[in-house]
């Protein structure tokens, strides 16, 4: 048995000044309406919305991949995002998606195993998803039919596999946006 890891939220600090809501253009304000969380418009969103058209395109795609009903279960999407974010070195996204996975599954066993670098303690499904996420993130051009077959061997159908590929792949993009536009650090 391994002890549990407790991940505290990180704070993201932009390198480009975010759009301040009182100074936002009507286009920017309208673009921010596609943000999944209506509770808070983050500095990250306000940084991306400098270009409202690309922000909307990015966010609509992100929402369709991560929050769509049906297909791959949401915790599995979060595990794919977590695996990709760990490989890509995006601590902010890794913490966000680790916490979301733990919340959705009501367990931090998978997150603990990954953060303590004990993937051998994962169940077959989580191990296959994590392995695929790491492999696809490290070298997408090296993916083979064997990688797909490993997902089929744990019961995934083609729709679920495509959903997982989308979740992992969008974090190749999302992690790079986060890295270039700012940095994360522990809250004080």
From TrEMBL:
List the signal peptide residues: none
Q: Name one GO molecular function term.
A: peroxidase activity
Q: Which InterPro entries match?
A: AhpD-like (IPR029032), AhpD_core (IPR004675), CMD-like (IPR003779), Uncharacterised_peroxidase-rel (IPR010195)
- Which terms are listed as keywords in the entry? Oxidoreductase, Peroxidase
Query: What is the protein's species of origin?
Result: Aminobacter niigataensis
Its taxonomic placement starts with:
Bacteria, Pseudomonadati, Pseudomonadota, Alphaproteobacteria, Hyphomicrobiales
In this chain the Carboxymuconolactone decarboxylase-like domain maps to 52-102
Q: What is this protein called?
A: Peroxidase-related enzyme
Q: Which domain of life is it from?
A: Bacteria
